[in-house]
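Think of the structure tokens as a kind of shorthand, similar to the way a musician reads notation: each symbol stands for something richer, in this case the local conformation of the backbone. In the example below we present two proteins back to back. Begin with the first one, reading the sequence and then the tokens, and try to describe in your own words what changes along the chain.
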Amino acid sequence: MTAKKASSGGTFRKFIVAMVIILIIALGFTGLNYYLKYFSPNVTDKQEYLYIHTGSDFNAVYKTIQEQGMVKDTASFYKAAENMNYVSRVKPGRYHLRNGMSNRKLINMLASGTQEPVTLNFHNLRLKEEFAGFVAKKIEPDSTAIIRLLDSTSFVQQYGFTTDNLYTMFLPNSYQLYWNTTPEKFFKRMYANYEKFWTPERKQKAAAINLTPIEVSVLASIVDAEALHDDEMPAVAGLYLNRLKKGMKLEADPTVIFAQNDFTIKRVLNRYLSINSPYNTYMHTGLPPGPIMMPSVNAVNSVLDYQKNDYIYMCAKADFSGYHAFATNMADHLVNAHKFQQALNDRNIKK
């Protein structure tokens, strides 16, 4: 009897030990599976950014991740996303992927919308279409959506602009914004920067020369197009302000080139001066209805802090240095103009 009891007890202990071992193995397997699903490195280095478009659902995100090889184990990512309820928390944006990120870190980043902003640097873009195309390369909205607002009279009136002069609102600078910024929010951000730029001091300087901030920027665009060197901008601005005060036409060659919409022109010929355009300052007195390019901040400040001079005329110097020969009377101007025309002829520049 005793031997049988001992044998039965030993068998039970072996059973218990076996069960414990099985439990330990099961827990270890579960723990390993949990680690692999949530904490092991899974993100690859095949793509630096994941772009999630506005309106995308989880299936679209998963398809992008799968097709572009953004994770090593797509099955574990899918399961982790389901368990972490990311399926119902998809947020659009531009997300920076780091090689070796775990599913947990990746999903937390996506679900919280912790995206990396884009840096937008723009300056001296000539046309609205160029600007819209440049911006569209940096943020989600396409150039058509941006142009639509640029050309919307009712929209731009909210900010006190017309479709002709709205371009003066965009001040060249470096901006950080989110990739999925809407066109409306983009414009709102640009306007906030415009308002910040036009301090009471700058507005006072504009009023002192009988110009509105918009008119200052329109004139600055001409100064910017005319002056190759920043240190000459105040003198050029002073000349144009002298013409405005006297009621003279500005007769600025860059406005004629803009009216012609031919920016390859190097020599403004007489036949160009008769083009019927509100931007042709040889034909119309005063400022054109809008800027002929995006004016730089230097050009705007040069108009506000213009050089007080008596210049009425200017002509590019014959040495092609990019500077101008200024004159206070027509006789001296004709001498300067003849020298430059001769230099163009010598170089066989006909247009």
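Once you have a description of the first chain, move to the second and do the same.
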Amino acid sequence: MKQISVVFLFIIILWGKAGYAQNSVTVYTTAQNTEYRITKTGNLAFSDFGQPKETQVCVFVDPTHTFQTVLGIGGAITDASAETFAKLPKNIRQQFLTAYYDQVNGIGYTLGRTTIHSCDFSSGSYTYIAEGDSALKTFSIDHDRQYRIPLIKQILSAAGGKLVMYVSPWSPPAFMKDNGSMLHAGKLLPAYRQPWANYFVRFIQAYEKEGIPIWGLTLQNEPLANQTWESCYFSAEDERDYIKNYLGPTLKSRGMGNKKLIAWDHNRDMLYQTASTILNDKEAAKYIWGIGYHWYETWTGSAMLFDNEKKVNEAFPDKKLIFTEGCVEKFDLARVNDWSLGERYGHSMVNDFNCGTVGWTDWNILVDETGGPNHAGNFCFAPVIGNTKTGELIFTNAYYYIGHFSKFVHPGARRITSSSNRDLLETTAFKNPDGKIAVIVMNKSDQKLPYILWVSGKAVKMESLPHSIATLVF
């Protein structure tokens, strides 16, 4: 009888803790025309609430249904970011590291991407070998030791050593391609298929020797694009065959079968066609962890194109979806306060996660006051801009919009059901490993929208400010 009483008391204590966790909700808000920037704006109490009326605006959350597990949220550490970082004063560099990678005092990035030799966001084109060296005897990452590797090491330290890092090439060396250039697409020549696979291995080995763990890799950045900068054409069939005949077997034979291989790494428009072509081939699919995608097919991201993610997730539930790149193009320093910058991020992240995405990676974590450096003139925004002339950081609202996810949705979180009964409110929600729930609610309209957060028969009255995003934690 005594043992039963002890067990019963333990259950009551656990129930009480669970009930307490749902008795109040803490609200963090970022809103246009206010000073709110991931600012704690409320601590409100739940109360019993039955059936909402049809006329009431509501966000419904159901923690009993869970979906994908979150890998992480972060951004790309490019040459442009590293060169800009190095030009900033020491105290500003520390401010930058804290702002992005400190979980308490920053927004807690946990995911990173970097390039295999140069891309458009480098000061110039370069590789790690001498021209014509298919045996890779001259392979060296000395170029990266000047700016990029030191930055990555400082980021690893700022993140407490917990950073999931993956790598991507923009082009093989010029001599390996049929157009003899790293630029303007071209295709990998058959004679260099194996040397190029070896190149991936050498890069991963070299970075890991520097103390930078590499979690995964993508085969080719934007494989269908013919760019004026580094690019290389791979059709879906080319990717399928290269993965199953060269890159997959090479990684496995060199002891890197645990590296997560990501296919596609291009826009949502061709996402399903490419994924199905590659993943319907069992010999290729066995090497692939997931499918990566970008957002450049459209400015707003239409429902149809988000639906392509959902179709891949439904057809291939054993593979993961990961957002590998996105940024706002056509840089203009006069636009740093443009509120649409952040709203584009929020709209994409809500919908991408709701469609099954497990990881979300912004493009450059930092650019300078010109939107570069960039050897192709393809200048773009980043959430944080380092003005190398004034030595200061400029935080666009995109930084805060991303932070409403990365600061409160931790690796290992499970997405849960969250729905809105009005299209003016976009929402997604997650249950973190510690049991706390984070609900993101975004309002792109000019209206102040009172609404009810409803969870399992309990509710709390909320208010969504015009052009705002809020994270509700309970």
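Compare your description with these statements about the second chain. The chain has two domains: 24-68+416-473, 71-408.
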